[in-house]
Amino acid sequence: MSTPLLSVVIVVHQMSRQAANTIASFTVPYQLRVNPDDYEIIVVENRTGDMLGHDRAVSPGANIRYFEFDNQTRSPVSSVAFGVSQTSGRYLGLVIDGARMVTPRVIHYALLGFRVTDGAMITVPGYHLGADEQHLDPAHDQDVEQQMLSAIDWRSDGYRLFTRAVLFRGRHQPGYLRAMLESNALFCSRSAYDAAGGIDQRFDLPGGGMANLDLYRRIGELPGTRLFVMPGEGTFHQYHGGTTTRTDPGREQLMDRFKAQYLELRGEPYRSIPQRPTLLGAVTGWALPTLRDSADAELDPRTAGEAMS
Amino acid sequence: MTAPLLSVVVIAYNMSRQAMNTLETLTPRYQLGVSDADYEIVVVENDSDDMMDPEQVRALAPNIRYFRRHETGISPAPAVNRGIAECRGEVIGIMVDGARMVTPGVIRNVLDVFRMDPDALAAVIGLHIGPLDHGLVPSGYDEAAEQELLAGLPHEGDGYCLFDISCLSRANPHGVAHPMMESNCMFASRANLERIGGADERFVARGGGMMNLDIYRQLAELPETTLWVFPGEASFHQLHGGTTTQPDRDRALLMAGFQAEYEQIRGRQFRAPTPEPNYYGEVHPKAMPLLRYSAQEGIFRFNRRTELGEPVWQDQVTSPLAAPGLLAELTDRELTAELHERTRMPIAPSELDINPGQPSGPDRAAGAGRLRRSLARLRRIRH
To answer: What sections of chain A are H helices per DSSP?
Structure first.
């Protein structure tokens, strides 16, 4: 087997059902217009009580490599670093939360973006499955979600996921026509990842705290980085009782700890990068409402001038 | 000198002022993030009473080449083919109407797209400067009014402000998420242009009739072609004594003649090709209303096609039919109808504050200012 161009690292932690969907969503034939020899999928699964295991992890494709990893912390950063150390591709895709399924042309467009420039940092808008952002939707749980996923038969047309999801906006992200705050499928060259210093192992809070945002920003700030976004693709967060996506009164407190840690490590509050993204890719009808709403947000004086922080 | 990757053919006939504006927008000084080594501009001007000065053309940029030719016919097809023959690039752009200014990201986007996809068809949407499609211009809006509109803009260094004073045309009234009929600024590989035989010189009608639409359709229907459109860029038509943009009660008759010529040559009716558009490029804030409108129009079309069980695109990757129960939720007709009204383009003539008997001379500037204010007001309403 020749060296693949792109290595996608997926970190899995106590979410066997969700991770099985996520891994399947990264493989051919669900992924369209892409040759499986052009990329590999590195699954790093932390040892927990709910393991996916080697056999189920690699069954969707011949381009999957599986590693069981002993991560004693509640932060995925060491798992990410380990996964990256196992890659051989010139380009990286990082999925720090294995509960995020993707739409069918994410790999195709990522590979195209790298033909424009090695400095491409290619991002995918993040959606939450369900009627609202999951931490705001107490009715959403694993059972509801499983029924929903089987009802839309997502494996036969992954773009239907848009019909059962909302764009994650949080407080500071009115759409994807400006730089988002982070990307849960983040593509960059291996050399850019290394130049940015890789994922910072000091982010040791549950879920990694702001490690993913921090990495995104540091790569984004490298000279030569060009920001891309796929307006018609998405990552879709499956419910798994994760750190920031559950309805939990302690969530706000935890977010404050994340911010405090970021401030401590970087000496300033987090803000996104001041680059206008380059759109890349088709937008199916299911995803057009989010495109319209993102344009709306840029036209609305209340959000258009909002500081990106 | 090594050949550039990209050559852009610009055809000019009897429009020296407009064509000079167009060429200026194509120069490396105006285009962002590219240099004169990346591309060349091949100008082919047919003889007329209103010619450009070749020295002035060449002085615009080092990567402009100018060719003057004598044309006895009334179609630009031979001029297009002459331009293609002069191109040194592997990628060729065709601007059949030299009156179209472009935004500053067009060349960079084209170079990027062909790095990704050598079989791309890259199409820039065409807008019309002023309040209405140039086939429908209200009295009081003429070339002089347009010149003042352009002069009042700081478009040196900010070519995107042309979005502020322009509207969609009847050729592509629904924006970039709908199939386009044609593009007056389109790009394909030299190999693919050769495969379709360049411009078909059997189109001999005025302005080439449907020759440009024919090129677009043939390129779009090649099996390898992927369509790329730039939601943040556009070409902007300036008023000139052009063929289909004159207010003309006989326009329908003219079009029927064009269609008859097309059918005679191709043996079928013209239909817009429907490859799925792939988007590329940054979206400047000035282009945001067009993108918003396009997305909304695309939602309408998607819902309509899906309800009818018809494919949305000729090469679509999604399933043509929705899973049961999905459509009802996505289609909220009342809401979309209301949004449609709020965003409708082009601007209706009755809404414009234009004095029908607009005087000439210094008063024109006031008229242009009034027009600009009206457009700004309408845009506020639309948003």
So the answer is: 16-25, 54-58, 77-85, 106-116, 142-152, 190-195, 211-220, 251-266, 288-299, 301-304
